[in-house]
Structures are given as C-alpha cells and as structure tokens.
Fold:
Amino acid sequence: MSAQADAHSPEDVRELILVMPSDIDYVPVLEAVTGKVARDLHFDEDSVELIGVALIEGAMNAIKHGNKYDLTKRVYVTLRIDPAQLMIKIKDEGEGFDPGAVPNPFEGDNLFRDSGRGILMMNAYMDEVSHNDDGTELTIRKTRPGA
Amino acid sequence: MELTFRKNGVVIIFNLKGNIIGPDGLKLREAFQKAIELGGDTVRILVNLEGTGMMDSSALGALVNAYTHIQQKKGRIGIMNASANIEKLLSLAKLAQLFEQFPDEEAAVESLSS
Structure:
C-alpha cells in the first residue's frame, strides 16, 4: 500500500475485487468492468482505452506466465479507488518471477520477438507499475483526472 | 475484433475492426499464418486497421510474427489507417520502421504488387 493511499480515510477508499479463472476468455469481461469504473471516475476515453490495455497486459501475463493457463488457478484483481488514483492489483497463483530479469525488448533480436512487450506498454500507459518481491502480484496506478 | 480478408490482385487484405486485445492476438496470429501459407513465396499482405482504436502486446506480437515469416518468404506486409494510439504503440515498441504504411488501398496495392 502506498503512502499516498494511506493519506485517505477508509471511507474515501472503495475496492472492487474480481476473481477469475485462468481463462483468457474472461479478460474482455475484466476490461469492460474496469472501463465502466474508469469512466465513472471521469477518465477521458483515450485514458480508459489505455488503462484497459494495461489491465489486459497484466491479466494476460498472470494467466499465461503466472498460472500457466492452469484452470484450477485463479487471478485476483482488485480495483482500488481513492480520491487521488485508480490502483489495480493483479495477483496470480504461480511461482512468481524476477521482474528485473525480463529481457529488454529493444535489445538485439528481441526487437523481432513476438512477445515480451507487455511491461513496456504498461509503463507507457500508467503512472506507476510495480511488482511485489516474488513477482506474483502486479500493481498499476493511474492518477485520477483533476487529482 | 472482427476480421475479414479478401484479395485485391495479388495482395491479401486483412480488414480489422474493433480493438485487438486479449484472446484476439492468438486469432490474428493464426489468420496471418493461414494467409502466409496461402500466399506462397511472395506473399503480399495489407492490414487495414480502420475501425481499430487500440491493440495490446499480443496483437503486436502477431504482427511481428507475420513480419518475420513474410520476410523469410521474401514477401511484404504493409498497414493502413492506423489510429494515433496504434502509431504511438508502434513507435514506442520501435517497430514502426518494420511496417510500410500507406494512405489508402489503391496506393498500397500498387506498391505491394510491384
């Protein structure tokens, strides 16, 4: 939990928790719910789209790399809304990974790889992207309009 | 995502509508693979992104995958009607230079057919 979030009283903070199986067909549903929340928070349509893509990147990583498509494992998504920001946490039930070991997508032949750009895109579209120590939980954050 | 394709001369035109996200990337990759198989050694593909606002990294991966296979076959791939967000994405990923961009179908077919 960030210091910024702690500055708000509990009644200023709302959370929506979604639990889904490791099935990519549920990802558009997740995007639709998050889009509704982002629009209610008065993000413009461009930002709604970019938040949606960042969310999809995180959820796809959790399903594919985290839970390895194991349908018995779940993905936990928490939308945390406070007066300053929309924070999205995506947790998987996988073995985790070292975020620092992700190959640089611009280096050498990596440019021609057909994967490995998700974190790059999340960083471009959100104000903050971070992982917990074992790499099983992603947090992405976007400052609310006017905050 | 809605995907239809047709031929204009020797060029296979992919018409994509709607955002290309999540499971769409895999479908797009499979469609490219089929087109590349059908297109022979000098396959020519034009991707019309009119009506597509955004794509995720999986869709971008499908495009890169198509590019590398087409390069191996001495074919060509171009895109047209990329939204501002997709142009930004291609630029961000340093992939803009891989894909020839065309203002319209006529110009694209003329160039890609040569």
Notes: Helices of chain B lie at 24-39, 57-72, 84-92, 105-113. Residues 45 and 77 of chain B are 5 Å apart (CA to CA).
